[in-house]
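User: What would this chain look like folded?
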Amino acid sequence: ATVSEPAQKCCTENIQPFLTSILEELMGPVSSGFTEVRSLFDKEVNEIIQDFRKTNDTTKLKENVDQFMNLPFNSVKMEPCYLKVNLLQELLQDLKSRFKVYHIDFVIQRTQNFMQELMENAVYTFEQLFSPSRQADSAKVATTIEKVKLRVLK
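Assistant: Here's the prediction, encoded as C-alpha cells.
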C-alpha cells in the first residue's frame, strides 16, 4: 500500500508517455526482420518453381523441397533476417540508460528465435500442403507450388 501510489505516479509520469514511441521505435527493426523472413521464403519457393520449370524433373524437385525444409536452420540464408533485428542493439542502448532496460542481447536473441520459428512453421506448412500434390501431373506442379506458396504467405 505504501509503495503502490508512488509507483503508480512514477509510471504515469515517467514511463507511460513514452511507451507508444518506444514501441514504434522497437517495431521498426522487428517488422523489417519479419518482412525479410517473408521475402526469403518467397524467394526460395520461387527458385524451386523456376528450377522445376527448367528441368521438369520430379526427383530434383524432391531434393529441392527437402533442402528447402532445412531453410530455418541455414544460418547463411537466415543471416540477412537476423541482421535487421540487430538494429535493436542501438535502440535498446538508449532505453537501457533511460529506463534501466537490461538483457538487450536476450531481447534480440528471442526475436531472432521467433523469426526462425516463423520460418520453421512456414516451410512445414508448405511441405504439408504441397506433399499430397507432389505426385500430380508435372504440368500442374509449378502452379500448385505457387498456390501453396501464396496460401502460406497469407
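Residues 33 and 81 are 5 Å apart (CA to CA). If you want, I can go into more detail on any region.
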